[in-house]
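Q: Here's a chain of 182 amino acids. Please give me its 3D structure as tokens.
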Amino acid sequence: MEAYLDIIIFFVLLTLGYVFGQSLEKSHYRSIIKRESQLRSIPVIASKILPDEFLPCQTEMVSGNVVISVDYFKKFVAGLRSIVGGRMASYESLIDRARREAILRMKEEAKRLNADYVFNIKMETSSISKGSNNSIGSVEVLAYGTAIIIDKESAKQTLSKDDLGKNEISGNDAAAINLRTA
């Protein structure tokens, strides 16, 4: 009889983990999508090179950090997947949400500084709060970069943000542009 009770408790916890985990994940994705559209005006660029057109400018380091925990259902599914091998899709959505949230928090900090761009973006990830058998309990993502605040008074001939996204620089054209590191 005790074995049946353990099985029932297991399936109840599994079902609760699935229902609440899916609900919270969908809510978080809706929040992420809404905030991404609000912060679309601040481009995030991985390049270390800052075009001369952006000079003179002020720079400031900005960062965004998030820790997201794994729900019980994802742990269970990942445990089954580790037996047979293959993609751990249950963890992929966790990493995707954490990455996007960290970038959003970094962009929110850049917006508070009235930054025009964020250059040289880098990301760090780590798993923290390990559970039994070294299973992942939480994942941390840190996004950081250099906020660029263009001095609009001195820089009369800057590229517009729309032009920056539309122009592709070919290998031959890149040599003709005078670039400087940020």
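Q: Can you summarize the key feature?
A: Confidence is low (pLDDT under 50) at residues 165-182.
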